[in-house]
Amino acid sequence: MSAALDLITRVRGVRGAMLVSTEDGLVIAEQLMEGIKGGAVAALAASLAGRLRRAMEAAGTGASVFWHLQAEQGALLVVPGDAAGGILVVAVAEPDVNIGLVRLELLRAAEAAL
Amino acid sequence: MSPHTRAVENWTLEPLTDFVREASARLVLVLTPSGQVLAQSGFSRAVDVMSAAALAAAIVASTGEIARQMRQPPFGALSHQGPKTGFFLATFKTDRGTLAVLAVYDLDVSSLGLVQLFYEQLATELKAASPKGAVPKQVLAADFERELTDSLNTLFGR
After folding, report:
1. Mutation target vs B (from A20, A21, A22, A24; most B CBs, 10 A cutoff)
2. What is the value of pTM for the model shown?
3. In chain A, which stretches have pLDDT less than 50?
4. Domain-by-domain residue ranges, chain B?
5. What ipTM, to 2 d.p.?
6. What topology does CATH give the domain A2-113?
């Protein structure tokens, strides 16, 4: 799992990466820079994942494969790790990070973690 | 404020209301380890509050005893998760004495991580709001029924 997170944190501009249990919102593994509250990010990302899943189902779009939330001082990028949605692979990044590269590494990490 | 959130001791009301909203908890009790309820949210019947408080107090006592036999400090928190519902029970120290929080949450709207996260905030706010220098009131056996009736009347707005 640590190796899976290494893939993500190697990307320039990524401040941390985590594997999060979708069901209970707890951290499974993390590599975070100081100052990032891993537990809070995990709990809120899992909560958001549950609500997004229901919204996507209601919209008839199927399961989500990647989300990117852009904020003023950073970004949250998430790949649900398996079809059942049991694990989230989460990256916390600088606002100007290379989104495409992080997405690719998140998908690779999801494959490696499972 | 939720119509079902009520407090016997008013300083608990705002932190509890915030916790219920942010953690999306269905039922919450703030109580002493002896089962005296200070505030509740989500309960509609007095008998349910009495049962939950008695069971939570029993769990706190039994896990405390297990910890004592293991020569460990008392456990900080306990969680149990079923297929649709989970509960979280934790204790912390305040100037009012040790308090316990019992939270019941539905897995489709909340999670253990979310409850743990906002529990920390609740405990911090309750510690800050608790009456300073207060001596925890002892409930004597002779007064127990009257105290219980008064608390339940307050909690259910009677």
Report:
1. A24
2. 0.82
3. none
4. 5-132+139-155
5. 0.80
6. Beta-Lactamase (3.30.450)
